[in-house]
Beta-lactamase (Secundilactobacillus collinoides), 339 residues
Amino acid sequence: MVAYSKTIRDIKTLVEEGVVPGVSYAFIDGDQVQSGLYGAEQLLPGYEPLKENQLYDLASLTKVVGTVNVILQLVDEGQLKLADTLHAYLPEWADSSVTVRHLITHTSGITGYIPNRNKMPARELHDALLNLHVGPDFEQKMVYSDINFIFLGWVAEAITGTPIQQLITDRVLKPLKMTHSTFAPSDPTICVPTEVSATRGLIRGVVHDPKAFILRDRCGSAGLFATRDDLVKFEQAILSDTHSPIPDPFRAQIAENQTPLGTQGRSFGWALLPVSDAHPHQCIWHSGYTGTAIVLDLATNQGFVFLSNRVHPDAPNEPFLARRNAIIATYLDEKRTAG
């Protein structure tokens, strides 16, 4: 197995320089797994060292760990088509141009401003989201937006009668035996805290994302909590020929551009890392606002799990983003040169 000594060194430096309190990480090479942790889980109101088997608020990793797989399973079962319009399932949405493919590739162009969005009751937020509109970026640009995956969750609910977070639990978490993963942690003390908020205090064991906090089990863009080891199970399942939550017809397509025009660099939910002479085949990845990221190389059966709480104690911690990207680049380089 690759040692990944440079990547681990960069992770430790990230913590030692105070960019994040701590990191849990894992490297997957086929059946082999190398994992570790470094630093603290909490700095305020008091210091707590990072421990094994802690739950992380995955934020937008919920999209690719959960919602993408539910949607593709519904397509595979013939209950949904990628060309189906959002309007067909949510008639309150007046525009008939936006399709499931637009939503899952972030090319819907949906835009608009909702005053006091983070303070609305769930029903009001639901109605306000459905009163947004399609702007000039429709199909022309990939513009990442939680709204796309909130709508996908509502489409899945319209088909099945079951809220998206329960569908993710039933269709992804349980089959993969991700037994620690949950949308409703029963014990906050086993959760790595996120922000110390002026309005919510220390956010621990409750979802950080304000839309997910309001919409609860009807939010497909964020809300999932998971351990590092459960994400290792997820990545190994994606890499597997027999246990993947992605239906067989889509497994070969998940590392390919799936945008309507074929030029916007997005797969089904997943971001595509650039192909170059140094990295000659396609890798997929996704990140979460709270400081989480996962990377998969389906061609070499390898993966990387990176979990931090970069919004603790304060958000948004913008310097983290470039440092995270550099760590992923180091990982890809070490993986390639050792291969």
User: Anything to note?
Assistant: The chain has one domain: 5-338. The chain has eleven helices and 13 strands. The CA atoms of residues 20 and 209 lie 19 Å apart.
